[in-house]
């Protein structure tokens, strides 16, 4: 699936994804995946429903859904390159994704965000009503380099 709007291309075609560009953003610029190894980014893309935004054949945005395409979807790794923020691309990407055929009829759509609540609220996301029912194992610094050499 692909649409063009104002010289931007929105696509779910994995063959268009520029893995090195995605890795660079996630490992160097994101707050949630600092130092993530390239191999983990590749594996996450292989096992997810992915979306890209392109301008002049350059990838300038990305998002992926971890989903079984039946009951559950987790939206993650959403970004727009800094030079393209403020143009409404996040909203257009959300609208493109939320109506994707593989994401219809799910029982639960979830995400986590530090600072984009107002964007996601426009698409029906809200704080969990029963957060005490949610559990997880969170390893926030898993990609940080550690010194494992013995003295």
From TrEMBL:
GO terms for molecular function: acyltransferase activity, transferring groups other than amino-acyl groups. It comes from the Bacteria. SUPFAM superfamilies: Acyl-CoA N-acyltransferases (Nat) (SSF55729). The keyword Oxidoreductase does not apply. Keywords: Transferase. The keyword Methyltransferase does not apply. Residues 1-140 form the N-acetyltransferase domain. InterPro entries: Acetyltransferase_Butenolide, Acyl_CoA_acyltransferase, GNAT_dom. CDD domains: NAT_SF (cd04301). This is Acetyltransferase (GNAT) family protein. The lineage of its organism: Bacteria, Pseudomonadati, Bacteroidota, Sphingobacteriia, Sphingobacteriales.
């Amino acid at each position: 699936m692909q649409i063009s709007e104002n010289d931007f291309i929105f696509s779910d075609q994995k063959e268009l994804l520029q893995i090195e560009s995605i890795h660079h953003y996630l490992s160097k610029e994101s707050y949630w995946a600092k130092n993530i190894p390239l191999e983990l980014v590749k594996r996450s893309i292989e096992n997810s429903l992915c979306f890209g935004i392109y301008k002049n054949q350059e990838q300038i945005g990305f998002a992926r859904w971890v989903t079984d395409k039946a009951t559950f979807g987790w939206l993650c790794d959403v970004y727009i390159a800094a030079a393209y923020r403020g143009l409404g691309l996040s909203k257009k990407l959300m609208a493109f994704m939320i109506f994707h055929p593989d994401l219809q009829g799910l029982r639960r759509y979830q995400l986590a965000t530090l600072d984009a609540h107002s964007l996601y609220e426009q698409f029906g996301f809200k704080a969990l009503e029963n957060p005490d029912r949610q559990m997880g194992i969170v390893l926030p610094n898993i990609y940080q380099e550690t010194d494992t050499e013995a003295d």
